[in-house]
Design brief:
With 385 residues, the protein is mostly helical. It has a single domain (2-382), classed as Alpha/alpha barrel (Glycosyltransferase). Helix content is 71%, strand content 1%. The chain has helices spanning 2-19, 32-46, 49-64, 77-89, 100-111, 120-135, 140-164, 172-181, 183-206, 211-238, 244-264, 269-290, 299-316, 319-338, 342-345, 360-371, and strands at 347-349, 352-353. It has a two-stranded antiparallel sheet. Helix 2 packs parallel to helix 16. The longest helix has 28 residues, at 211-238. This is Lanthionine synthetase C-like protein.
Amino acid sequence: MHTKIDILLEEIARIMLVTGDFNKNKGLFVGQSGASMFLYNYYNYSENEFYASFADELVMSISQSMDEDKIFYSDGVTGIAWAMSYLAGADFIDLSVGTAIFDNVDKALLKSYPRFFQTVESAGICTYVYERLKDYNKESEGELIELLFVERLVAHIEEIALLEGNKKPFTRRELTEMLEDSPKATLDKSAEKYFSAAVVLRKARQHSIYSEMVDRLSIVIADKLTGIINGMHQFLEDNEALNPVHIRQLQNQLLICFNAWLQLRVPEEEMTQTFISCFVKMENYLIMNTGGRTEKLNVPVEVTCITLMDTINIALQHPMLKDAINAKVDRLVDYLEKEADLVDQFVLNPVTLNIGVTGLAGLGLMLLDRVLPEKTNWEKALMYN
């Protein structure tokens, strides 16, 4: 399997060398910041300095042309700055915390802290802010910025409380309708909402920010996630015939919801068993309904699924989940080797290739975690842990 993975990794790196300059997006999710994370880690594995040199060029280009008015995490300066911090922490680049790139992003963010909540963007921006709070020195300006950021984070937590504090969990009927009708619409939106809230609350707890409110809200959000996961379990018990596409959608939502739940709670046997039972039913259903045939895979979705499973299994250390991860990786590698054109899997539109952590870089980093002696921890970019 290493040989197959090595071939794929080399192809991913080659594609990035050819296309990296053409993707003008500097961001983390689809652009050059995400690509640089893969290239440096691949250099660490291959020991070919050419990849590090190209990554150096990307980082130089990124740092010289950041649009500080674009504060978003997925393709804006907070995500870019997070990537630079990751690279510096891994000793790939020489970048002290006090450099202008971070100071400028901090000031831009304080100038226009976003007024949206419970989205991946808002959770990402909070993740960047929490990382910065760890690193501030106590000089007068740094202390002022630190206080201002805490003030923004407290307001963010209060907004989550306003949005969720008085809402009841879904009823069984509501959940059944969601699961039957459109898991990619209603449930997708709910999963993102609760995942994003969980990220913000977990980070707030780590920094002892607004502790009483955070503890109360963590219970509220965890209870809602428990209801969704239990609802999925019951739905699978009650429905024998489901479309495999529907099951794949549900499986990713299950993983997102359980990952969010783990960010708020210590693993409990009852909830763990419900999750494992639900996951096994979905896996068995997919195996039965494909009958061993080669199936067309949505590669980005498969990478997301495997990465979520990896992260969850760090907490659970469950042998069934480990076996399922290995099987999914083997299946994906075989599919990419025999059936799929890598470029086709990650084309966003006729002129843009996704080379970031939700695209080619994510695939490459997930595969590197199979062959490197130490994990790259790249999934932190997606806020999974």
